Amino acid sequence: MVSQHGILYAVHLITNQFGNLVAKVCECLLRNGALTLQAIVRRTELSPAKVRNCLLVLIQHNCAQAFILEESVSGEDAGEPGKALTQYIALFVNILHRVRFSKFMDVVSKELGGSCGELFRGLLEHGRLTVKQIVDRAGANAKESTNTVQEDLGKLVMAHYVECCPAPEPLVPPPDADTKKRAKSSKVMVEPLTLEQRVMAVAMPSAMRRFSFVPNADQVADDQQNVNQPPSKDVGEKRKLHDLESDTALEEEVECNWRANFEELLRRLRHKTCVDTIKVRFDDAAATVLSAMLEASRAEEDKVKTANSVPLSLNTIYEEVVKNEKNHSMTFDHVRTCLEELSCPPTFVKTDDESYSIDFTKITEAAQSEEIESIVLKRFGETAYKIFRLLFRAGCLMETDKIADKIFAEKKETSKTLFKMWQDGYLLMEKLVVGGTTTGPSYGGSSYLLWKVNKRLLRETVLDEMFHAALNLNLRLAHEIDQNKEVLNLPPDKREGPDKQKFDRLRNVRLLIHSSLMKLDDAIMLFHDF
Amino acid sequence: MIKEVVNVKNKGKKHYMAVEFEPSTELTGGAWYDDDGNLHVEFINIVKKCCLQKIKQLKVATLETVLQLFKTSGVFKADLKEHHFEEILGALVLDNEVMEVKSNGMGEFGAIPEGKVCYKAFDKQRVGAAAEPRIGAMASMPCGVCPRIRSCTPDGVVSPSTCVYFQKWLEF
């Protein structure tokens, strides 16, 4: 369930990039869940043609997905009995990714170089492209040869930064069968998948198909086209049939659309966040060792929110560390010492029989706690900071006087701070009446106020505030640009005195807001995606 | 014949006691309260500072180690018991000056039995360590610390375009 400000922020991003009409359709889907075309038309009061075009834009840019539910449709959209209707769902996560393109570009360019980065940029800009479109674009922009482009695309697919697009209208089975199967095999309580997750799980091609790129497929397709011309007298029927079959397979291959694989990119950013967290808490050497562990275990990671990395031996970790020239001076003992430090409580690296694995959950939780504590300290003050840390660690209800004793604060100040935090949704409060009758303490009983941090609710509250803050930053930037339109329209040589000052100020405002947005987006990923 | 004693839990009411009796810690508040029933903030801060210094010297310390060190040194005239030091160490943890961890018997915890609760100071002197706690992304912008964020809407009385905190933040 997307929060209120999450929806507002997503709609703002779509409005900025695709206009009001597309944003209206997107908002309709975000607020109402999956809808058919007719339902969207009814709710948005736009013509079917306009809605269809808006949906095409959203699908092209991977912000929406079409699907058909296997179970029979009923209710307001029921057509003929048993007739499956195509529904559309907004992909909130992919909408958020649109502000991260520069981060994704950075990851790809650093690993695979400038030409791959340029090709990747095209996929981000256009959402999805066929091989021919990629080749044509590269040829027009940088005059790259077809072979070079195909080579770069191959590298991107092999590194899993680019994937084959999902099926356009997959058939989604009912949820019960899927949940039961997962629960049976895991023997633990399984959280049901959201509709978005179920749709994407079915729409995604198999792992082999998803990352299978055949270079020169278009060249082969061109050759096939030559074969399809009037046959010579030597070609018999059997051969024609064989050619037709391979022709169809190749057409499917050639027509495959390619897009950025956000899952892999998110995984890299998660790794980066883990390394940064360790660097702050320990030192550069520990961060280097963790980085090496992440690199060595990367291939085995199959989802973004993996709890632990695969176990690695000390030798494997050391070999990975010294692969990088900058780390040649690190000794085996130094690596072992770093691992021992990381294994000390709080245990960011688990040890088991001479093997080491990273506990991603612990690192992520530590980073999240740091972020929330920072907010509490700045917003409510030092007393609130101590109260929050006490209740967060305790994980249970605590009475006001006991809290005051633990943090060595006056009871009046403690009470005031607790109420402020409760009003902003950072704490839960319960009233306990002891003794007397149920009608109140005036009949001989006393009442106590008990306080608690609910970690799950708190994370949701903070995430919603982050979406709100991100939206505000965008709106403020738009306001500043609007206020200084005349100065922006002046040619550089005409900007003098107060106009130049305004222009310089606006440049600084833009830099500050953009860098704050990037930093805030890292925090949003920490709470929403990692 | 009688004397007035302060009840820290109910300072508004006057309490009297015969002079030959000593009030219990429930009334006086114990070692952390002065004769007027107020929290002795200065004394508490001194004890905290001393404990932190000891832990930094030892790198890792248990409650018993800290207690023993102060008993032998006789630094404090006040009769501080084990539970007093436990409260102080708890407060240092909440101040984020020390970490409360369980020993795993390895490395720097080698001398401490596995599973024993101990305290480790944050090493703010190491290369690359920040002198002050890191300010998070939300806390470094106006909305993150705004007391009016719940009333803020794009077109409302409190909005990003009219916000005075934003105005101040964007003053160059």
From TrEMBL, chain A:
Domain called RNA polymerase III Rpc82 C -terminal: residue spans: 154-366
Please name the PANTHER family in this protein's record.
DNA-DIRECTED RNA POLYMERASE III SUBUNIT RPC3, RNA POLYMERASE III DNA DIRECTED -RELATED
State how it assembles: Component of the RNA polymerase III (Pol III) complex consisting of 17 subunits.
Residues of the region (Disordered) are 219-239
Annotated localization: Nucleus
Functional description taken from the UniProt entry: DNA-dependent RNA polymerase catalyzes the transcription of DNA into RNA using the four ribonucleoside triphosphates as substrates. Specific core component of RNA polymerase III which synthesizes small RNAs, such as 5S rRNA and tRNAs.
Which keywords appear in this protein's UniProt record, sorted alphabetically? Answer: DNA-directed RNA polymerase, Nucleus, Transcription
One GO cellular component this record assigns the protein to is: RNA polymerase III complex
**Does this entry carry the keyword Transcription?**
yes
> Which GO biological process categories is it annotated with?
DNA-templated transcription
Domain of life assignment: Eukaryota
Question: Would you identify the family this protein belongs to, as annotated?
Answer: Belongs to the eukaryotic RPC3/POLR3C RNA polymerase subunit family.
Keyword Nucleus present in the record's keywords: the answer is: yes
**Which GO MF terms does the UniProt record name?**
single-stranded DNA binding
Q: Which InterPro entries match?
A: POLR3C_WHD, RNA_pol_III_RPC82-rel_HTH, RNA_pol_III_Rpc82_C, RPC3, WH-like_DNA-bd_sf
Bias category Low complexity: which stretches? 219-230
- Protein name as annotated: DNA-directed RNA polymerase III subunit RPC3
Q: What broad class describes the main subcellular location of this protein?
A: nucleus
Domain named DNA-directed RNA polymerase III subunit RPC3 winged-helix: residues: 372-432
UniProtKB/TrEMBL annotation, chain B:
Q: Which InterPro entries match?
A: RNA_pol_Rpc34, RNA_pol_Rpc34-like
Record's keyword annotation contains Heme: no
Where it mainly occurs, coarsely classed, is: nucleus
Q: Name one GO biological process term.
A: transcription by RNA polymerase III
Task: Reply yes or no: does the keyword Electron transport apply.
Answer: no
Keywords from the UniProt entry: Nucleus, Transcription
Which branch of life, at top level?
A: Eukaryota
Give me the Gene Ontology terms describing cellular component. RNA polymerase III complex
Q: Which Pfam families match?
A: RNA_pol_Rpc34 (PF05158)
User: Under which name does UniProt file this protein?
Assistant: RNA polymerase III subunit C6
The organism named in the record is: Linum tenue
